[in-house]
Amino acid sequence: MPGQPDYYAILGLPRDASSEEIRHAFHQSALRLHPDVNVEMGDTELFLDIQRAFEILSDPELKSKYDSQLPSPESTQPPVQINLLYSRSALPLLDEPQLVYAMINLSPPHTETTMNSAPLNVCLVLDRSTSMKGERMDMVKTTAIEIVRQLRREDVLSIVTFSDRAEVLIPAGRRLDRAAIETQIQMIHSSGATEIYRGLEAGYQEIRANYNKRHINHIVLLTDGRTYGDEPHCKRVASQASGRGIGISCLGIGEEWNDHFLDNLSSSTGGSCAYIAKSSDIRRILKEKFLGLSRIYAENVRFDFHTGKDVGVRYAFRLGPESAPLETLPPINLGSIPVDNTLTALLEFVVPPLSDDVSQVTLASGQISLDIPMNTTPTSVTRLRLQRPVKAEAPPEPPPTKLLNALSKLTLYRIQERANQAFATGDLDLATQHLNSLATHLFSQGEKDLARTVLDEAENLERGLSLSETGKKKIKFGTRGLLLPAGTDSSLASVDIGEG
Amino acid sequence: MIICPTCFNEELEGALFCIACGTQLTHQTKSPTETVVYTNPNQPADSAAETRISKAAAPGTTQVAFKIVSSGQIIPLEGGEEFTIGRVSGTQPILPDIDLTPYQAYEGGVSRLHATLHIAPESVTISDLGSANGTQINGVKVPAHSPQALNNGDVLTLGKFRVEIIIHP
Fold it and tell me: Is the model's pTM score more than 0.90?
C-alpha cells in the first residue's frame, strides 16, 4: 500500500506481535525518544511516528482494519533467509554446565540474480596528524581521488580531515566538480596530534546532514595514531550513530593505533576494523572497504533476544563478510548482509545443569531486525528462536563440518586473545605457551609467515621482552583473516552434512 | 568437564576445541590441526604403552622410546637407526626427525636441532649437537658432538626438557 507506513516496522516488531509486545516496544522507544529527554535532531519526529504506530496497533479495531490492508504474510517474501547450524542436534542431560554452538547464516532471498545495491552516503574521516606525513598521506590522497572518480551519480561522499581539530574538506550533498575535489584532496597538509573524537564527530554531522534511509550511511575512519582521553566521547558518537543505523568502520595504519578501542567502537555499530600493516596496502584495503559498502543488501542487522533461564552467551563472533568480535549482550549488532553473500555469526552458549523434567532448552529467543535500503519499508523484523531438545545421551553424530571448520579457525584467534590476556596479567610463561601452541597450529595449516611472527613474539617473551605492537596486531588480524574463506563462501551452505 | 589431552586445560562439556592449545576435543574425527604427531593421542600414558612397545618389537631389533617426564606421554622412535631431536622453527631449513614442539619443548629450552640419537644392535647413544642449553644424562652434562651411551631408565635432559629413556633390547 503506497503511502501507508509500516507501523510494525516502526516499532521494530514482527507482524504477529502480541498486544503485550506492542505495548512493551512502544514504552521502550518512548523512553528513548520522548521530547523531554531526546537530544538529537529528528528524534521528536521519530517519537511522533511511534506514537501514531502505537495508537493504531494498540486499538483492536484500528489494528484489524490496518492489518486487513497489509499484504498477507504468506504472499510477502521474507526479507532474509535464515539458516541455522548447531554443534549438536540435541543436548545431553547433564548435571553440569555444557557448551553448545549456534551458527546463524543470513542471506538475501535470492530472487533476482543481479540485485541493485543501494547508493552510498559515506564520510571518509582522514587522520592528517604529523605521523601521516609522507608515504602514508600520499597513498591516502591517491586512493581518495580514485574513489571519487569511481563514485556513481547517486552516491554521496564527504571528506573530513582531523588532527587535534577537524575540518570538513568536502561537505556532504554538495556537488562540487571533480577537479575541485581532487585539488582539495591534494592540498591536505599533515601536522598536529591525533584526536579521533574531533574527526568522528565532524564525520557524524556530515552523514547526519545527508542521512537517507535508502542509502548506505557509513563513516570510514582512517588513522595511524592513538587517541588520548577522548575515548568516552568517541563511544557516545558511536552509540548515537548506531541508534540511527549509521555504521562506523575503522582502518588503522601501522603499529601505534589502538586496535582494541577501535575494534569495539566499530563492532558496536555493525562496522568493521581492519589493520593496514604498510603504506602500500592502504589503496587495496580502502578500496575493498568501499567495494564492500557498495555491495550491501541489508545493514544494521540486529539480533535482539532473551536467553533461556540461566543460559548465557559466552562468546560471539562474526565470521563474515568481515570477521569481527561481536558483543555478547543483546541486542547484538551483527553488521550487514552483502547482496551476493552470507552474513555468518557464531554464538557460544553456556547451558546450566539440566534436570530430567526438561525436554527442550531455549538458548535465545527474539528477533532479527534489518534495514534494507532498496526496500520501501523502514525495517524488517523476523522472529528467531534458537533452541535444542534434550536427550538422555549425547547424539552420536559429529558436529556439522562447516561449523567445525569455522570453530577450528576461530580457536586460533581465541588462543591469540588468551596469550594477550596472560601477557596483560603478567603470566609470561602461560602467554609463551599459548603462542607456541598457536605457532604449531599455524605451521601445520601452512601459514608459515604468520607462524614465524608468532614464534618471534614468543621468543621476545622468553628473552624477558614485551610483545611488540606490530607483532600483536599482525597476529590478531592475521588469525582473524584466516576465518574469511570459510565464512564468506556461500557455496558451503550446501555442505551441512557431517563427515560421518 | 573435559580435560584437554594435550595441555590438561579444563573445558566445559560440549566444547569442540581447547581454547588454550587448540586441540580438537571431539573424538569423531582425528584432529586436522596436528601434522607431526608421534604418539597416538588416545594412547594412555601408562606402563601399558611400554608393554605394547615391547610386544610390537620385531625379534633382534632394539626398541627405543621417550617418556616425557612432565606428562607421561610416550614417543616411540621407529623406522630408523638415527634420529635428530629438536623442535620445528620457521626459519630453519632442516627439520628434526623427532619434533618435540607439541610437548612444550620451546619452553623447555630445546634447541632446533638439539641432539642425535643412534640405535645400534648393542648400544644406544646420544650426541649433543652443540645445543644452546646443553644435554644431560641423569643430571650430568655431556660434552657436545661426543656420542654417550644410554641405558634403560636413564633420564635425558635437553635444556630443561626431561625425558626418560625406555629401551627394550
Answer: no
